[in-house]
């Protein structure tokens, strides 16, 4: 796809939401503390992980899938590379966890170098990093993969459920409006900012 994807009309079918964190209890059970980190941040073990994460995933992700967005659960580092090599996937969102200089995938933590090594030299799409504070990754991605159409990340730390609702709104907008990905992103950010500003936080 030679068209600049930053200016292209994007639909959910062009988008992939790839999860590096466990999306089922089976995935959770396979994780080991020496190779994973996200689970360690949620005290209380399996029961609390279900309450804090899985219940929301099971409720919201099917709604996202209904928009036509392609869902990739339990994405390994190798599978991540395969997704990026698929030319029909214009926008790839990595929904995961950042620790130190690593991104969590289904098969463990991947260093910045390992992550970048999986990004094809000819990937010209939009890479959306929904991981908290990936400051060590984004500049190197831009330097070592300058052909990428857009690298998006936010320094905002939020709960899993807030990010899930954010992406549900983003993909719903892409499904119902004729817009570029950036236009839909900016509108969704504005929508959520307005809601938070008007929320009763007492």
How many DSSP E strands? 8
Unreliable residue stretches: none
| Main CATH class | Alpha Beta
Going by CATH, the architecture would be: 3-Layer(aba) Sandwich
First-residue to last-residue Cα separation: 50 Å
The whole-angstrom Rg is 16 Å
- What is the total number of structural domains? 1
Task: Output the helix-strand order.
Answer: EHHEHEEEEHEHEHH
- Choose one word for the global shape: globular
Q: Describe the strand arrangement of the main beta sheet, using strand numbers.
A: 2-1-3-7-8
Supply the helix-strand structural class: alpha/beta
The chain-level mean pLDDT equals 87
Strand percentage: 15-25%
At CATH level 3, the topology is Rossmann fold
Helix content: 40-55%
Instruction: Tell me about the largest β-sheet.
Output: 5 strands, parallel
Number of helices: 7
Would you write up a description of this structure?
With 202 residues, this protein is of the alpha/beta class. The chain has a single domain (12-197), classed as Rossmann fold. 41% of the residues lie in helices and 16% in strands. The protein has seven helices and eight strands. It has helices at residues 25-30, 45-66, 77-84, 112-117, 138-144, 160-176, 181-197; strands at residues 15-19, 70-72, 91-95, 98-99, 102-105, 108-111, 126-130, 150-153. The strands form two sheets. Strands 2-1-3-7-8 form a five-stranded parallel beta sheet, sandwiched between helices. The protein has a three-stranded antiparallel beta sheet with strand order 4-5-6. Strand 4 and strand 5 (102-105) form a beta hairpin. Helix 6 (160-176) crosses helix 7. 33% of the residues are buried. The model has no long low-confidence stretch (mean pLDDT 87).
């Amino acid at each position: 796809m030679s068209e600049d994807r930053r200016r292209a009309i994007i639909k959910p079918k062009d988008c992939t939401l790839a999860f590096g964190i466990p999306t089922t209890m089976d995935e959770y059970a396979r994780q080991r503390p020496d190779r994973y980190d996200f689970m360690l941040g949620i005290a209380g073990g399996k029961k609390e992980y279900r309450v804090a994460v899985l219940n929301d995933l099971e409720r919201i992700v099917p709604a996202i899938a209904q928009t036509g967005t392609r869902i990739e659960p339990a994405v390994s580092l190798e599978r991540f590379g395969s997704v990026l090599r698929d030319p029909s996937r214009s926008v790839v969102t990595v929904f995961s966890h950042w620790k130190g200089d690593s991104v969590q995938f289904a098969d463990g933590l991947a260093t910045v170098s390992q992550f970048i090594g999986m990004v094809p030299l000819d990937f010209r799409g939009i890479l959306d990093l929904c991981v908290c504070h990936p400051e060590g990754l984004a500049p190197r991605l831009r330097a070592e993969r300058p052909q990428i159409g857009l690298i998006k990340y936010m320094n905002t730390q939020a709960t899993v459920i807030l990010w899930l609702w954010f992406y549900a709104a983003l993909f719903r907008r892409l499904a119902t409006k004729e817009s570029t990905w950036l236009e839909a992103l900016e509108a969704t950010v504005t929508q959520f900012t307005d809601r938070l500003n008007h929320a009763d936080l007492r």
